[in-house]
Write a structure and sequence with these properties.
Protein name: PD-(D/E)XK nuclease superfamily protein
Helix content: 40-55%
Largest sheet: 5 strands, mixed
InterPro entries: PDDEXK_4
Shape: globular
Oligomer: single chain
Order of helices and strands: HHHHEEEHEHEHHHHEHEEEHEHH
Pfam families: PDDEXK_4
Strand order of the largest sheet: 1-2-3-4-5
Distance between the termini: 70 Å
Number of domains: 2
Length: about 375
C-alpha cells in the first residue's frame, strides 16, 4: 500500500501539471452560467456567428443529441430568451431548449414553463435539454411530466468541442478559444489530468491488489467528504446558537444520515439544510445544499400570498442572483465549494478546519442579514 501510494505521488509530481493562463477565468467567474458558458456555447452554435463555420458546429451537437431532421439552415440561436438559457429555433416550428446549470438549483416548474411558452408561440417540435457538469437529472418539480434530454459538460460538451477543433483550425482566434474553454471545463469537472499521467496511473492500478485497494479508498474518500461536510453543518449550528439567538432554533434536515445519503447518491438526497422561520411573518430564511451551499428566502405563495409578495419586493430590492422575477432571493457564500464533485482546489479548502469555520460563519452571517433585512422591510411597510 505504501509503495503504491508513493508511486502514484511520484507519477503525479512528474506528469501532472496545473492548468496555466486561461482567458475565460480571467474575464469571468468560471461558474458564470449566463455571461460565460451560455454566451460562448451560443456563439459556437449560431450559424451566423463569426466563427465562419455556418451550420457545421450546430450539426455536430444535434448529432450528439440524436436530434434528427432539424432545419439548421434557417436556425437562429438566442440567449436568455424568455429566461431560456439557450434557445435554438427555426421558422419550421422547431425549437431546442438548453437549460444550463453549472451550480444553480432548479426552480419550480422551470423546464415545464419553458416548454409551455414555446408551445404557446406555435412551435410544434420542441426538444428540452438539461445541461449540467455531470449529466444530473432535473428535479421533478421543474420538469413535471416533461421528457428531458440530459447533457453533460464532462462527456458530451467536451467531446463536441474536440470535434469542433478540426473545423475551426483555420480560425486561430476561435481555435484557441475552444482549446482554453475545454481546459476550463476540464477543471470544472475535475477531469484536467493529463493523458500520460492517467495512462500510467491506470497501469499501476491494475497491478497486484491495487484495484481492490482503490475501491476501498473510493469508499473512504466519500466517507471523508461526508465527514467534512457534516462538520460544516455542525459549525453552522454552533455559531448560530452562540451569535444569533434571535434566529431561534432552526429546523435541521442536514443530519449525518442525510449527508451520508448524499454521497451514496440516494434518490432525493439533495436540498437539505437548515431553516429559520420568521416570527414576524410567514416564511423565513434557509441554508441549503444543491452541490453548492447557498442561503435565501422561502415562503409558500399559495398559502401565504401576501407575505410571499413582501419577500418578492425585498428580493427585487436586493437584486437577486436568480434570473427569474418569480423567484425569491438566494445567494452563494464568498467561499463557494462544490461538494458533489470537488476539484483539487475545493479539496484543499475543505480539509482546512479554518476554512470550514469560515464557510460556516459566512453562511450563517448571510442568513442573519437576510433575516434582519426582512424584519426591517416588514416594519417599514406596516407603519
Amino acid at each position: 500500500m505504501d509503495d503504491f501510494l508513493q508511486t502514484v505521488a511520484l507519477l503525479r509530481a512528474k506528469h501532472h501539471r496545473p492548468p496555466g493562463f486561461n482567458l475565460f477565468s480571467v474575464l469571468r467567474s468560471s461558474s458564470d452560467e449566463v455571461r460565460l458558458h451560455s454566451r460562448f456555447l451560443a456563439f459556437l452554435l449560431d450559424p451566423k456567428a463569426s466563427h465562419n463555420q455556418g451550420t457545421a458546429l450546430l450539426r455536430r451537437l444535434l448529432d450528439r443529441l440524436d436530434i434528427k431532421q432539424f432545419d439548421v439552415e434557417n436556425a437562429s440561436v438566442l440567449t436568455e430568451y424568455q429566461n431560456i438559457d439557450i434557445l435554438i429555433r427555426n421558422p419550421s416550428g422547431q425549437a431546442v431548449i438548453i437549460e444550463n446549470k453549472i451550480y444553480a438549483g432548479d426552480q419550480k416548474d422551470q423546464l415545464w414553463n419553458y416548454h409551455q411558452r414555446m408551445q404557446a408561440e406555435g412551435y410544434r417540435e420542441i426538444w428540452t435539454t438539461y445541461l449540467t457538469l455531470d449529466g444530473a437529472e432535473p428535479s421533478e418539480q421543474s420538469r413535471k411530466s416533461l421528457p428531458v434530454m440530459l447533457l453533460s459538460y464532462e462527456a458530451e460538451i467536451i467531446a463536441w468541442l474536440k470535434d469542433c477543433i478540426p473545423l475551426v483550425a483555420r480560425e486561430p482566434g476561435v481555435r484557441e478559444s475552444v482549446f482554453q474553454y475545454i481546459e476550463l471545463l476540464q477543471k470544472l469537472t475535475s477531469s484536467e489530468q493529463g493523458e500520460i499521467y492517467m495512462s500510467k496511473l491506470k497501469e499501476q492500478i491494475l497491478q497486484g491488489e491495487n484495484l481492490f485497494l482503490i475501491a476501498d479508498i473510493n469508499h473512504a474518500f466519500k466517507a471523508v467528504l461526508a465527514d467534512l461536510q457534516f462538520d460544516i453543518w455542525e459549525r453552522m449550528e454552533a455559531y448560530q446558537a452562540s451569535h444569533y439567538e434571535q434566529l431561534g432554533n432552526p429546523e435541521i434536515t442536514a443530519t449525518k444520515d442525510a449527508v451520508s445519503a448524499y454521497y451514496k447518491k440516494a434518490k432525493n438526497s439533495k436540498f437539505f439544510g437548515m431553516t429559520f422561520p420568521f416570527g414576524f411573518m410567514k416564511g423565513g430564511v434557509y441554508i441549503e445544499l444543491d452541490h453548492r451551499l447557498y442561503s435565501g428566502y422561502y415562503c409558500d405563495g399559495e398559502q401565504f400570498p401576501e407575505d410571499r409578495e413582501r419577500l418578492m419586493e425585498l428580493s427585487r430590492e436586493i437584486a437577486s442572483t436568480t434570473r427569474s422575477t418569480g423567484n425569491l432571493h438566494w445567494q452563494y457564500p464568498k467561499v463557494n465549494v462544490n461538494f458533489h464533485a470537488p476539484s483539487n482546489d475545493d479539496l484543499a479548502l475543505l480539509r482546512d478546519p479554518e476554512v470550514r469555520q469560515s464557510i460556516a460563519v459566512g453562511l450563517v452571517d448571510d442568513a442573519y442579514h437576510l433575516w434582519e433585512r426582512a424584519k426591517k422591510h416588514v416594519e417599514s411597510t406596516t407603519k
